[in-house]
Amino acid sequence: MKWDILKVEDLYQGFFKLCRLRLSHGRFAGGEPLVVERELIRRGPAAAVLPYDPDTDRVLLVEQFRVGAIESPHGPWLMETIAGLIEPGERAEDVARREALEEADCSLGELVLAHEYFSTPGSSDERISVYVGQADLSAARSGIHGLVEEGEEIRTHVLPADEAFDWLDRQQVDTAFPIIALQWLRLNREMLQERWGSG
């Protein structure tokens, strides 16, 4: 089916950009195209990564304040994977590595793409690349990280993979990045231990 953008109106430019689109698109039932107006948050692509140590069978998660969860019954501090926006000219893998250093002081080895998806395509153009990254977490400790100039205060949690899966099952993890990464790891942990393990 065909679609066409008829008009774009910029409404707001801040950390994200908001615009209004007037567009037309074909109908499943056929006939004249449907003409609609929709607001679109231009957030752009992002990358997320779950560091995993196959030798200690531990993962690293981060916890930080999220304004979108301000009315959550659990509070706005969410358990997540490391993540960041992809700037023009950057590769998703490079962003995952950079953010791991900034948010958790964690160097990554090989990255495996778990999944790519649109986060909220009804209102945003954000597309996420989710990775699981090879990491040595044998000496890693929970701590506070992030870039002060970006208003970040990020607490890291290094924990056994089975404990992270338990957090997931008890809905203590309730954002898409870590849900997807942890579910993927649960299905592929043995493969990564054979591929990345030292013995």
TrEMBL record:
GO terms for molecular function: ADP-ribose diphosphatase activity; ADP-sugar diphosphatase activity; metal ion binding. Keywords: Hydrolase, Magnesium, Metal-binding. Its cofactor is Mg(2+). Its EC number is 3.6.1.13. This is ADP-ribose pyrophosphatase. It catalyses: ADP-D-ribose + H2O = D-ribose 5-phosphate + AMP + 2 H(+). InterPro entries: NDP_pyrophosphatase, NUDIX_hydrolase-like_dom_sf, NUDIX_hydrolase_dom. It comes from the Bacteria. CDD domains: NUDIX_ADPRase. Mg(2+) binds at residues 83, 99, 103, 152. It is an enzyme of class 3 (hydrolase). The keyword Metal-binding applies. It comes from Ectothiorhodospira haloalkaliphila. GO terms for biological process: nucleoside phosphate metabolic process; ribose phosphate metabolic process. Residues 42-193 form the Nudix hydrolase domain. One of its GO terms (cellular component) is cytosol. Belongs to the Nudix hydrolase family. NudF subfamily. Acts on ADP-mannose and ADP-glucose as well as ADP-ribose. Prevents glycogen biosynthesis. The reaction catalyzed by this enzyme is a limiting step of the gluconeogenic process.
